[in-house]
Amino acid sequence: MTTSKTTYIRQLTPSIALLGATFIGVVNASDHTLPNMVKIPGGEFMMGTAFGDKRAQPLHKVAIKPFMMATHQVTMAEFRQFVEDTNYQMPQNCNDTLTENWLSGPNDQGDKNWQSHRYVISEYQPVTCTGLQATYDYVDWLSEKTGITFRLPTEQEWEYATRAGTTSHYFWGDDTNQTQACQYGNFADESSEYWASNQVGASYVGFLEHTQCNDNEPYITLVGMYRPNPFGLYDMLGNASNLLANCYYPEYKKRTAEEMDVTKCERIAHRGYSWHSPPANHSDRGRIPKTKPFAGVSFRLVTDDLTVKPNNTTLAFASKLNQAQQARKATRPTFLPTPNSLQLKQLDPGNYELSWQKVDDKSVTHYDVYLSTKPHSHLMGGFFKKHYEKLVTVQASNNQVKVTLPNEGGSLRVVAKNNTVGSLPSHAAYQTNHKTLDIPGNLDIQYVSQLVNAKLGFSAANETRPELYYITKINHGYTQEEVSASFNVNVKEDGWYKFSYRGRTSNDGVFYKVWQNNEHVGDIVYDGDKEAPNRNQVYLKKGESNLQLSFLHSGMDYWSMGGIELTKIEDSSKI
Questions:
Q1: What is the tally of structural domains in the chain?
Q2: Contact 186, 304 (CB under 8 A)
Q3: Alpha carbons 67 and 73: distance in angstroms, whole number
Q4: Are residues 368 and 465 in the same domain?
Q5: Cis peptide upstream of residue 440 (ω within 30 degrees of 0)
Q6: CATH code at position 276
Q7: What average pLDDT does range 2-20 have in this prediction?
């Protein structure tokens, strides 16, 4: 085991103090803590998925022997016992970046450690930033202290234990609209959206999206704050991801022991994801480089010894954890409810009356009304203040205001405020004058008449190109949503048209389908940088019509599409 001859210096700097959080429950060092373990019964289950993310395919049967798993991830308090007992020299290159572009990339370097990163609020949160070597050294240390051989779970054991005999999308049910998720885990939710957007301008809108619930936990929190799964395991999904005992490979097939040896591969498997993601399906897989510590990755212990029982250290720790949990629940940062039921009533051309339902919170002092800076701001992703400017402040006693919209249309949003915090922005009330686009010509994305399950992106003009609007979408590996974009067009004459565009996707083949008045008129393919000048062609009929593009992608995919141009093919021999 790697140790240092000098004592590691504590740097307990809870950087989320701006949320009103306090550092909770620092424990006195003791010899060690035996984790609370539950028995996971043996059995068979179907691992993976038959559709969606290719990395979790194929669906296959796996047999699991009985084992014991810790009810919680290893906390900072437990890990501190190891560090102080061994004078362990911990990694100092953990990256805890949080900017308007969210987290750091895989090659970014940081200078934080397990107890100094920005997400530290309590000794009873999962320990992160440990890295692979320190994680295994902790496991060896606790095994030596207790006489029990601990280890990390395999991918098979983790998925089996997380499912806990359920067959629904999540272990608490299908939860199609993700309204129940906040009872069972710490995910990207309304609280994460509020605090990240107001602190650094980061937003899940048009990115990963967020759950339709709120737990008042912006980032990482203490272990065991949510309901357990049917096996009695806490935080199997969300809060901090779970480092596993095997290498990561992008497909399932039988591997040798040498191939799965973490000392001989580049990437290590992890599961469950963190506060930064919506709840993942049980089969969703992750991987990280083994040489880097991460601020969102923790670990929990398992053992094959089925006789392990709680002892005095287990019970003492549980009591202190309970006290810390109650203290955290009493000090969670809160924000105001979101105004809803916006109505936009036209008074005369260009002039409207905007009204909304008052927020049921007596601390509200006023409402800020925001006006869009672009006609289609309501379709755009990212922090809403990038696309809206404050128009007027309305006192809390009122819930309506007269507004003027530009000739090309626009939208409005309302935010509840008091002297301390605000709310998330309301859904937009909008008035859009849809433009009819001539074909042949450019199918400008900014004039989309309807956009479903995706967002508009925008890039400002630079020296090499004009400003660009585009459709953008992140496909999760475990969901398949059809995206559609509709345009009002006027086709000047019947004929074949070449379909050119700018776009990117991780999948070759059909990128999207083209429909004219619900008639399928062609498929548009993507083949990277390959030249295919005559490949994307559609036959369009003369006249005014609705032109729709539909996208249906499976597996993980971050795609975008814009810059569409349709040109008439005059030479029929090129068809």
A1: 3
A2: no
A3: 16
A4: no
A5: yes
A6: 3.90.1580.10
A7: 33
CA distance 100 to 7: 37
What CA–CA distances, in Å, run from 194 to 20, 203, 334, 380, 384? Answer: 15, 8, 10, 17, 11
- Give SS3 for 63: strand
Q: How is residue 155 written in tokens?
A: 């991918």
Q: Give the list of residues 6+ apart from residue 516 with CB closer than 8 angstroms, or none.
A: 540, 541, 545, 546, 547, 548
Cis before 293? omega within 30: no
| pLDDT range class, residue 432, cuts 50, 70, 90 | confident
Q: Identify the CA nearest to 233 among candidates 33, 37, 35, 34.
A: 37
**Per-residue model confidence as pLDDT tens digits over 517-551:** 999 999 999 876 544 445 689 999 999 999 999 99
**133: pLDDT strictly greater than 50:** yes
Task: Judge whether 6 lies within some domain.
Answer: no
List, in sequence order, every residue forming a beta bridge with 489; answer none if it has no partner.
437, 545
Q: What would the mean pLDDT of 236-265 be, rounded to a whole number? A: 90
- Angstrom distance (rounded) from CA 302 to CA 229: 17
pLDDT, tens digit (0-9, with 9 covering 90-100), for 88-102: 999 999 999 999 999
Do 417 and 448 lie in one domain? The reply is no
The beta strand positions in 156-196, using DSSP E, are: none
User: Are 442 and 427 contained in the same domain?
Assistant: no
DSSP codes of every residue in 297-318 = EE---EES-TT----HHHHHHH
Last residue in a domain, options 432, 447, 470: 432
Q: Identify the H or E element spanning 450.
A: strand 450-452
Residue 350 sits in the same domain as residue 282:
no
Q: How many Å apart are CA 426 and CA 322, to the nearest integer?
A: 37
Q: What is the CATH number of the domain that holds 541?
A: 2.60.120.260
Distance, CA of 184 to CA of 162 (rounded, Å): 12
Q: What is the rounded average pLDDT for all residues in the chain?
A: 90
Residue type, 18: L
**Do residues 89 and 106 share a domain?**
yes
Q: What is the token pair recorded at 455?
A: 């967002």
DSSP state at residue 126 = B
Identify the residue with better confidence: 282 or 329.
Answer: 329
Q: Which helix (H) or strand (E) holds 190?
A: helix 190-200
- Side-by-side strand order, sheet with 366-372: 388-395, 366-372, 409-417, 429-432
pLDDT confidence bin for 206, thresholds 50/70/90: very high
Range of the domain at 352: 340-432
